[in-house]
Amino acid sequence: MTIPNIQPQPKPTTDRVYWLQTLLKIAEPVLVTAAAGQLREKMPVESAPGQQASRQAVTHLEALGRTLAGIAPWLEAEVPADEKARQQRFGELARQAIARAVDTNSPGTYLNWTKNNQPVVDAAFLAHALVRAPNALWARLDTTAQQNLLAALRQTRTIKPFFNNWLLFSGMIETALLKLNSEADEMRLDYAIRQHEQWYKGDGVYGDGPNFHWDYYNSFVIQPMLVDIVQTLLPLRKISKATVDPIMARAKRFAVVQERLIAPDGSFAAFGRSLAYRCGAFQHLAQMALQRSLPDELPAHQVRSALTAVIRRTMDAPGTFDPNGWLTIGLCGHQPSLGENYISTGSLYLCTVAFLPLGLPPTDPFWSGPTVDWTARKIWSGQDVKADHAL
To answer: In what residue span(s) does the DUF2264 domain sit (predicted)?
Structure first.
């Protein structure tokens, strides 16, 4: 199918227009080159000193899986007329990219699904995209690509996840297999859920393994994957509502915490690992908005206002993109020293998960409500705000 060329978009007139233009600006280099079978050739690999060779082996699946995880809800949605041509184009690019990435008869485009530990991580992000967009990213693949994709996901079972949030990577892969093909290793699902029950620390926060870490991994990985795993299992009667209810109560509390972490200028405390994922630190808040699961005290349009500020603060800074449109390492611009030894160019595309609410229609209160102050802006401008309380 011919992929139509889309003309440059005008200056954003609404938050939704700005969000979509920004997301597609981020995703385009990845999906265009991956669909053409040129991802390895065209994508630069920026990494920490001495890590170039090791990252070269895994960074391309990172870029593809993470980009799809963020764009998936918009690809799946019923979008307004002025977005349809772009949705068609990026949907075709995404499906072509997946087909090439799993084609064992094409060594030049087939990605690494088994070597080193990292592939289980980014196969999981791709699996999360499939769970979020089963029609756009799975049902519209041809039969050969579907079978190749299932085989690629199954291959990651050879990788033993670390005893921390990585258990959810194996769990998310099995969730996708269950949803798409009614086949999964349910022990991996059960183990991931049970361990995170044991690692719950209180007030809406899980440990990353047995220990607590001051970082954003409750949002990068833990809560979004855990929520989508149990919500996939519940209608299949493979988990009880009694298990799911407290997980969702914690998720609502953590959404409140995340919104309060957003400062009046859209910045947020720069602590912990993986700050180079930029606005991806607020995936959980974005997912709760997408799923219309925000707590009553957190209006959807207030969350949109806060997330827009975060996206502008992290994605509009000079140096965020290189001259060819690829992301650079940093939180606010190009800051190479924020790149840990497991960070490379492909890693950075987890920022796309802040854009999940683009899967909501423009008529949803998230988009249709007015721009308002979020909690930190209210407090620091002297407005009267209700006190916060633990779960």
So the answer is: 15-373
DSSP 8-state class, residue 211: S
Instruction: Please report, in tens digits, the pLDDT of each residue of the chain (391 residues total).
Output: 444 444 455 677 899 999 999 999 999 999 999 999 999 999 999 998 888 878 999 999 999 999 999 999 999 999 999 999 999 999 999 999 999 999 999 999 999 999 999 999 999 999 999 999 999 999 999 999 999 999 999 999 999 999 999 999 999 999 999 999 878 999 999 999 999 999 999 999 999 999 999 999 999 999 999 999 999 999 999 999 999 999 999 999 999 999 999 999 999 999 999 999 999 999 999 999 999 999 999 999 999 999 999 999 999 999 999 999 999 999 999 999 999 999 999 999 999 999 999 999 999 999 999 999 999 999 999 999 999 999 9
In sequence order, which residues have a C-beta less than 8 Å from that of residue 196 and are 6 or more positions away?
167, 168, 206, 222, 226
Which residues are CB-contacts of 2 (< 8 A; sequence separation ≥ 6)? none
CB atoms within 10 A of CB 8: 5
> What is the rounded distance in angstroms from the CA atom of residue 197 to the CA atom of residue 191?
10
Encoded amino acid at 35, one letter: A
CB–CB of 61/101 below 8 Å? yes
Q: What sign does the dihedral 189-76-299-308 (CA atoms) show?
A: positive
Q: What DSSP string describes 45-81?
A: --BSTT-HHHHHTTHHHHHHHHHHHHHHHHHHS---H
Q: How far apart are CA 259 and CA 383, in angstroms?
A: 17
- Alpha helices (H) along 112-165: 119-132, 134, 143-155
Task: Give CA separation, 105 vs 15, 63, 99, 259, in Å.
Answer: 43, 22, 11, 47
Nearest-angstrom CA–CA distance, 74 and 134: 12
CA angle 344-225-34, nearest 5°?
Answer: 40
Residue where the block lists tokens 């493979």: 238
Question: Cα-flanking dihedrals φ and ψ of residue 321, to 5°?
Answer: -115, 145
Side chain identity at residue 375, one-letter code: T
Side chain identity at residue 150, one-letter code: L
Q: Delineate the domains of the chain, giving CATH numbers in brackets.
A: 15-380 (1.50.10)
Provide the CB-side half-sphere exposure for 164 (13 A, CA): 10
